[in-house]
Amino acid sequence: MNMKKLFTLLLFCASLTQGYAMNAASTGSKASKEYTDKLVVTINGESSPEQTTKITVETPKDGIMNITLPNFCLSAGEDMMYVGTIKVNEIPLTASGLYNTFTTNQTIQIEAGDIPIEGMWLGPMLGDVPLQMVGKISDDKFYTTIDIEMVLLGQTIHVVFGTDDFGSSIHSALSEKQMQTTNVYTLQGILVKGNVEKAHALDGLQKGIYIVDGKKVIKK
């Protein structure tokens, strides 16, 4: 098998990864969460088709996370290269508004995967593998780029998981929240309740007429 050719024409095995991730989340002892999104792998300027897959994130303590990208494999036609499970631990998180950012440069050792395969897992034979990881994470969204240096193969694997649209996502979330809240004024323009849910805007107020969303509302 020509390894460099195989790495040039690549396809991420998302179905294998998804099966592992579901099992890992159910059996892990640490607090963990799965993020599902699109993943693209690029080598020597050629990219794989988008694949939906999962990354597991563990938070062993405040300000620190561990990530697992399980059963990573590449294929070209009928040829398959089973790389293994990529784990990056002790990644420091930096608060940035409604999400955290992270950057880490580490040397890792890729572990064998835990699913049945025809052949061998390549990762454990690669020894020390330099890796750079940059990204953002919130409660419901995870974005990262991972550059993996395969020194023995003379290749750099560039992995992108998710999309870097945190600004628009947060803006949408804030806009939605703002649409669900309002201010309540007296007829004299005095604010009596601020930033309250519309459904409960008049709760606790005395009977009378109030201004809600620019309209007169009668509290009976």
From TrEMBL:
Recorded superkingdom: Bacteria
Residue span(s) of domain Lipocalin-like: 35-162
Signal peptide location: 1-23
InterPro entries, A to Z: Lipocalin-like
Keyword annotations: Signal
Name by which UniProt lists this protein: Conserved domain protein
